[in-house]
Amino acid sequence: MSDEPVVSRSVGAVNLQFELTPTDMIRAHAWHFSSLWFIRLVYAVNLIAALNLGSVILRQGLRPGDIRGLLWLSFWFVGLPALIIWSGWRQYKTTKPGARSMAWSFTSEEIDVKTGLSNASLSWDALHRAVETRHALYLFTQKRLFHVLPNRALTNPALREQLRRLLKEHLGVKAKLRGTRAILLS
Fold first, then answer.
1. pLDDT digit string (tens) for 142-183?
2. Is the same domain home to 79 and 128?
3. Which structural domain, as residue segments, surrounds residue 35?
4. Which of 24, 43, 73, 139 is the most exposed place for a label (fewest CB within 10 A)?
């Protein structure tokens, strides 16, 4: 498959073809990690600690004990983001090249998924939830297991809306989609 996303429309189906990229995997890892409530809480606490430490250093100067605090904060604000990027990159590199080529077909009856290595048909009941972000659509088959459909595969606005309608119809409130207001009003 080429790197260009292919979007076609057959009767009642939304068909997407795309190639997963390292950026897709890194964004998926970062999004998932940042969506966890306890990670957000830890970052909020560390941000408060960083601001407090900064004000102490400005008032009293840098002391030996402050270096430990700076090292701790550097883990959260430099080390952990680097680990997330590395994790996404590793997942991309360990995914067999044939499995990176994806073809999805959404109909009102089922979802068909094809890669260069496998084929699968999913019942709509197999989807736990769907979340649409600025960069991708994440389809969850379990609480923490999801598939990535990059938004670059959905460049046609009519097909994007058709897919949103299918997701809303089958998942209801479990579909967290951008542009949901337009779907609900129609």
1. 998 999 999 999 888 889 999 999 999 999 999 999 864 444
2. no
3. 29-94
4. 43
Domain count, the chain: 2
71 and 104 inside one domain: no
DSSP collapsed to 3 states, the chain: CCCCCEEEEECCEEEEEEECCHHHHHHHHHHHHHCCHHHHHHHHHHHHHHHHHHHHHHHHCCCHHHHHHHHHHHHHHHHHHHHHHHHHHHHHHHCCHHHHEEEEEECCCEEEEEECCCEEEEEHHHCCEEEECCCEEEEECCCCCEEEEEHHHCCCHHHHHHHHHHHHHHHHHHEECCCHHHHHHC
Task: Mark whether 40 and 108 lie in a shared domain.
Answer: no
